[in-house]
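Batch job 17 of 40 flagged for manual review because the log was empty.
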Amino acid sequence: MQKKITGGSFFGVKALIIAGLSLALLIPVAMLSSIVRERKMLADSVKNDIIAGAGGELFLAGPYLVVPVYETFENKTERRNVVIFPREYTVHGQAATELRSRGIYSAPVFTGNFFIRAVFDIQEDRISPLYPGRCSVQFDQARLYMEVPDPAVLREMPAVTTGDNRTIALTADFAPLQIAGSALGGTIPLSQGPLEVSMDLETGGGGSIRIMPLGMGNDIRIESDWTTPSFIGDTSPIMREIGEDGFSAHWRQALGTGKWPEYFDIAAGTRGFQYYKGFGVELFDSVGVYHKTERALKYALLFIAVPFIVILLFELFAKQRIHPIQYALVGVADIIFYALLLSLAEQINFLGAYILASGAVIAAVSLYTGAVMKKLSRGLVLVPVLVLLYGYLYSALQSQDYALLIGSVGLFAVVVLVMFITRNVDWYALGGRKPPEPPESLPPAFPGDLDNIQEQDSPEYPA
């Protein structure tokens, strides 16, 4: 005999089916996540090509001096090279940016103007202690180096001006320290005492600007019209201003980085230059399409569950059954929102794409629900619910620091609201029966009068 399914049993089975359907719809969500990652990789590849074509990420290291020293030790004379870093190091840079596009992708590139000033303290008695033997310092053969990633980033070859009005021409040269990769170099005869040099660099580049603070004391300023900078490196600027017209940042180190001495022999190693990449600014796109779409996908289960809960409440209170396939179509429409968002955001701005994609899904789900329930007003109930839901998601996407808090509060609010709406539902009555009422008094543990129970001998068993 086939068991009849009661109303309550049916509702329980329906709830389980909807829960399983919600979890099953996470499979296409995972597929969309994979598509977003692939598109992001493609976009990053194109952006890197654009930046490389503009000269690449800019990294400035220098100027610094290299002084040849001939050491005589045990009747052998060998050439050594001593590196001298500035006592004072100043960089003031300005970068005018633009977005350069290739197809639907774009990347920030810039034209930079950098004024660099360095003051060296040239002392022979700082060099002699580096060597145990007798040494001869060749100040007349000293060279000055300025390292850059590639000389091609320079709009023109710079000239170095000294404090005593000498001009030193620089040409492409081998980089002794290999900090940035390539170098400009020129011979600069030295005499003991302070030496001030300055130069103006006009460069191209894109993506980021980094400065290696080689001085014992460093004063570095960078200004740009880019409005969404991300400051990079292990030293934060002591002052930063970010506005609609761009940003300015100021780094100052009174005692240098402490990572390397002012004088050292180049054979002693690179002093960790390959691990320390200075500090500066990355031209960061804070409204990245792929970054925000990835974050939006983390809320996919909420966007599937909330419309399902609303429709399930319609079933509960309006006594109208909705087929699981109809639930599935609503869930698929909610998931297609993310595909619409990604494809539109690649063509227009993110806010416009979000409004168009969410508006299309809200209209489709609301009208479909009204048609299924044979009453348009019931479908229109979903409109404010979905508008509030999509508005909540957008606020979470805009606030990176408080996204977790907003998400947690939103989920808690949904649960509390469902609890409030269903607080008076008699779930047992849905099944057509109520649980048995407990008796007013429990029967005695033993029948009869407990006082008259006679003790009986326990039966004996044969050994």
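Reviewer: the log was empty due to a logging misconfiguration, but the result itself is present. The radius of gyration is 37 Å. Unflagging and moving on to job 18.
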